[in-house]
Amino acid sequence: MKVKILVGALVVLMIINIAAIGSFLYLHHHAKHAKQPDRAHRFAIRYVPEKDRAKFFRTARALRQDIGSLADETGALEKDLIRSMGQNPVPRAHVDSLLEQIATNRLEINRKATDRMIAMGDSLTAEERGHMVDALLRFRNLGRADHWKE
Q1: Cβ distance 148 to 134 under 8 Å?
Q2: pLDDT band, residue 139 (cuts 50/70/90)
Q3: Do residue 84 and residue 127 come from a single domain?
Q4: What's the pLDDT tens digit per position in 5-47?
Q5: Are residues 141 and 100 located together in one domain of the fold?
Q6: What's the domain count of the chain?
């Protein structure tokens, strides 16, 4: 009887080990192809209460629609700037004009984002506004915003 129990336990343990090895191999192979959540999704899951996530994502999508083409244009200008700096001699006038256009685009992006955040904050209580500022500072990796909650 003892031998049957020991053999049964050994079989169960072998099955568990084979399943663990199979799971490891499967995840190791397929984890490379799995899509990781982007920065905003990771942030929302960590810091935004579940009841507010839908509103957060609606606001983020609307902001992306507002600034998407401007952000794409700025990215193309930055690539052009890097390519221009690789030329010999560097076309200084062209580089300066690219820098001015990039700065103008970034200012416009920041204005649109700030306007949207101000509009969203107008409908919040003082405590909720403090949480919003704290969340924005966390999202921008500026640390906790306790000094804003006076």
Answers
A1: yes
A2: low
A3: yes
A4: 999 999 999 999 999 999 888 887 776 666 666 666 776 677 6
A5: yes
A6: 2
139 shares a domain with 76: yes
The CATH number of the domain where 70 resides is what? 1.20.120
DSSP per position, 82-148: HHHHTSSS--HHHHHHHHHHHHHHHHHHHHHHHHHHHHHHHTS-HHHHHHHHHHHHHHTT----GGG
| Same-domain pairing of 81 and 138 | yes
Q: Would you say how long the chain is, in residues? A: 150
Residue 35 DSSP SS3: coil
Helix (H, G, I), strand (E, B) or coil at 32: coil
Does the pLDDT at position 149 exceed 70?
no
Say what the pLDDT of residue 65 is.
Answer: 86
Show the domain range for 28. 1-34
- The predicted model gives 130-148 an average pLDDT of 60
Task: Name residue 149's amino acid.
Answer: K
Count CB neighbours of 131 within 10 A: 17
CA 25 from chain centre, in angstroms, equals 28
pLDDT digits over 94-111, tens only?
999 999 999 999 999 889
